Description:
There is one protein chain. The chain is mainly beta. It has one helix at residues 3-21, and strands at residues 32-33, 39-40, 46-52, 64-69, 78-87, 100-105, 108-113, 115-121, 124-133, 138-143, 153-162, 171-180. It is elongated. Residues 4-28 have low confidence and may be disordered. This is DUF2808 domain-containing protein. Pfam families: DUF2808. InterPro entries: DUF2808.
Amino acid sequence: MNKATHIVILFSSAIACTIGIGGYGDRYTQAIQLQDGTVYFAQPPRLTYTATTYNDIYVSGATYYFTVSLPDNAGEPLEKITINQHEGVDDIKFELKKSYAFEGTRSNEKQKLQLTDVTRDQKTISITFNPPVSPGKTITIGLKPVQNPTVTGVYLFGVTAFPPGEKSHGQFLGYGRLQFYSQTSES
């Protein structure tokens, strides 16, 4: 058997094995870990919903909701989310101790999730889950601003998800968009 034939047989065997186990891939996806130890999601989570309970400026008592869906084939659980105010005139301040998270969506709230750490570094809020959230779940984070901004307009919040590990790669999920309006009074 010549070298070219041997390579073709090996390549064909590899393809056959890949096809043979293909049906099991979604259920048993492994995380991606680089040689330097950096861990990645095999399939990243998705930011599926962002909303506020009140969209008028100056209002107190609002909650900003960020819903994230972690696919079954993520390969790793979700340990941390960061939310960074990327755009908007006012720097919105939050009552970090009132932050919370739960399984499900805003309209279908399920089990509350334990948060071990909620911190802020400049415009970025970090939320750490304990235990990490298992693949296949949808979670919602509720952040309580001290008050809504004082200036109308669009405010964008970048959302990034991290798997567990000392050296985990944050996957940017996109921007959550909130728009705030001025109350108008009619005479």
